[in-house]
Amino acid sequence: MKYMKIGTKPDTFHTEQATRTVISDVPSDLLIQINNISYLLHKFPLVPKCGLLQRLCCDSGDLEKVSIELHDIPGGEESFELCAKFCYGIKINLSAYNFVPAFCAAKFLGMTESVDKGNFVPKLEAFLNSCILEGWKDSIVTLETTVKLPDWSENLGIIRKCIDSIVEKILTPPPKVTWSYTYTRPGYSKKHHHSVPKDWWTEDISDLDIDLFRCIITAVRSTYMLPPQLIGEALHVYACRWLPDTTNIRAPPPDQSSDDETLLMEKNRRIVDTIASMIPGDKGSVSVGFLLRLLIIANYLGGVSPRQRQNS
């Protein structure tokens, strides 16, 4: 996993009840309110780096202390704090896990190169292009984090870039795969296998949300570069990752179903329906046992069975 460290100063943010302040001899002249948290900060160094704050401060006139509400900032308090710490020069660690909220918040605040040279947005863009998208697991983790900010991630092109990166690596011939991947098939040991298995990529993408998984499989299939059996194996791995074991399926009494159980059944129904819709029509692309398992689960959940999908 790739990381990027920015800033050198120690963290001087301090919490007192619902207020976050920066320890400083200079009095605060900027109040930022996000949800239930108040930030007592300073116009300098935040305003010179944030185009949005520049406009909002101008709209406030010559007030000595400005109060601004940013309740709709993507990522909330955590992403704003990453941006604020960047402005103060406080050391922050960026990775695939927090890139998306940081990037969306920085774009929201207008932390672009045109506002200030060496600003946060261009640094984040460089990190995305040179580190995250170059990595296999980094691209997957980043893509998975977009589920919390889907609209922003879609509009900023993060989702498309991550999918393109993942698909490009999936289509890489196994002998040319040099990055680490997860492969835990029974009886398989990397110590005894020097060659990369053809389905090396299936377990890692099974961590994704079903809609993102569908986008990747659809993109891979559109290239016609992988055999239907390999697509079928990816569907099988995903089903094993998320769907219940058919030997343990037991429907709870209708009057005893909790909200959590209902939500889980709805999620599993969507997974079954989506997987069934992606099964290649080629003979032998999936095993009869896998189809039977999907059929049993679909009947239990009341979803669309793979047979119905294939006949439609």
From TrEMBL:
InterPro entries, sorted: NPH3/RPT2-like, NPH3_dom, SKP1/BTB/POZ_sf
The keyword Nucleus appears for this protein: no
Superkingdom per UniProt: Eukaryota
Keyword hit for Heme: no
Pathway as given in its UniProt record: Protein modification; protein ubiquitination
Matching SUPFAM superfamilies: POZ domain
Keyword field: Ubl conjugation pathway
Every NPH3 domain range: 199-312
Protein's recorded name: NPH3 domain-containing protein
Lineage of producing organism: Eukaryota, Viridiplantae, Streptophyta, Embryophyta, Tracheophyta
